[in-house]
From TrEMBL:
Residues 36-291 form the Periplasmic binding protein domain. This is ABC transporter substrate-binding protein. GO terms for molecular function: carbohydrate binding. Gene3D superfamilies: 3.40.50.2300. It comes from Arthrobacter gengyunqii. Keywords: Signal. It comes from the Bacteria. GO terms for cellular component: cell envelope. The keyword Oxidoreductase does not apply. It is found in: Cell envelope. The lineage of its organism: Bacteria, Bacillati, Actinomycetota, Actinomycetes, Micrococcales. Belongs to the bacterial solute-binding protein 2 family. Residues 1-21 form the signal peptide.
Length: 317
């Protein structure tokens, strides 16, 4: 199927449009259940949603679930009781959402997934999913390492700092990376453990890796924050990050891009947190009962150390 046909298909794909157009003359009310405040990416994502809601005149009810699924489920149930016009959330993990999403559907409140996906088989439980292609992000990271290691004879030992266990970005970034390096048997993931997308988690796990794993050549961290924690551990162990141990991360937040420009990180795959405007646009359409694509993929790129130096002055987050 040609790209044009695919995009046409995506645009015509039916999303669950609410039976009766909701909202009121003074704008719509959105209930937003955020994952938490675990990383620089999340902070930027929250600001984007809040700023876009204000600009769009959306009455935003916002909760921070502190990375706990039960808190997100409680928040969604409170939004249903408050009879908001639309619910949006970034599922902290992929599984365990069908019951509460069915409650929202029964209450005729449309749900928009933003940032992370759910693994529900019933795609009528949400109107659309707006977010990155995490498998592609992992693939980009792996492809860079394959190219960077092309002249290396012998083993390249990789340790992996995984994101939150069960989270779509953690599962998919792992999948994409592993597929990209699979044809190069000298590239081996010798240790892999979750750092829960936090800087402290990345530091603690990297300290353990450094103690129990000889000859680490590369760190693949599922986000900048864990990569920055790994840098602290590597430096404390008397090694030079970016040289003795190369580091590849995902996100491209300011602190990560700064470390990249300083040579402490070697490559960053961008994951765009600025989803607010697209979210408010989708919400307005969904509440008005208009068709929306089932899937909206965010545009993003990747950065080398040189590209980071050029891009840093203009970065928005
Ligand atoms: C990805 C997002 C991830 C970021 C992390 O879209 O869900 O969660 O990569 C964040 O920094 O904690």
């Amino acid at each position: 199927m040609t790209a044009l046909a695919v995009s046409a298909l995506a645009l015509s794909a039916c999303g669950a449009s609410s039976d009766s157009a909701g909202g009121s003359e003074d704008g719509i009310t959105m209930g937003f259940a955020q994952v938490g405040a675990e990383s620089g990416w999340r902070t930027a994502n929250t600001k984007s949603v809040q700023d876009a809601a204000e600009a769009a005149g959306v009455d935003l009810k916002f909760t921070d679930a502190q990375q706990k699924q039960e808190n997100q489920i409680k928040a969604i149930r409170s939004y249903i009781q408050q009879k908001v016009d639309v619910i949006a959330f970034s599922p902290v993990v992929e599984s365990g959402w069908d019951t509460v999403l069915k409650e929202a559907k029964d209450a005729n409140i449309p749900v928009i997934l933003t940032d992370r996906a759910v693994d529900s088989a019933d795609t009528t439980l949400y109107a659309t999913f707006l977010g990155s292609d995490f498998v592609e992000e992992g693939k980009k990271a792996g492809e860079w390492l394959v190219e960077d290691s092309a002249a290396v004879d012998g083993p390249v030992n990789i340790v992996e700092l995984q994101g939150t266990t069960g989270a779509a970005p953690a599962l998919d970034r792992k999948e994409g990376f592993e597929k990209a390096i699979a044809a190069n048997p000298n590239l081996q993931i010798v240790q892999s453990q979750t750092g829960d997308f936090t800087r402290s988690g990345g530091k603690q796990v990297m300290e353990a890796f450094l103690k129990n794993t000889p000859d680490i050549d590369v760190v693949y961290a599922h986000n900048d924050d864990m990569g920055l924690g790994a840098i602290e551990a590597i430096e404390a162990a008397g090694k030079v990050p970016g040289k003795d141990i190369k580091i590849i991360t995902v996100d491209a937040v300011k602190d990560g891009m700064t470390a990249l420009s300083e040579g402490k990180i070697n490559y960053i795959v961008e994951c765009n947190p600025l989803l607010g405007e697209q979210l408010m646009d989708l919400a307005a359409k969904v509440v008005a009962g208009e068709e929306v694509p089932e899937r909206v993929v965010t545009e993003e790129t990747a950065f080398t150390q040189e590209q980071a130096k050029e891009a840093l002055p203009n970065r928005k987050y």
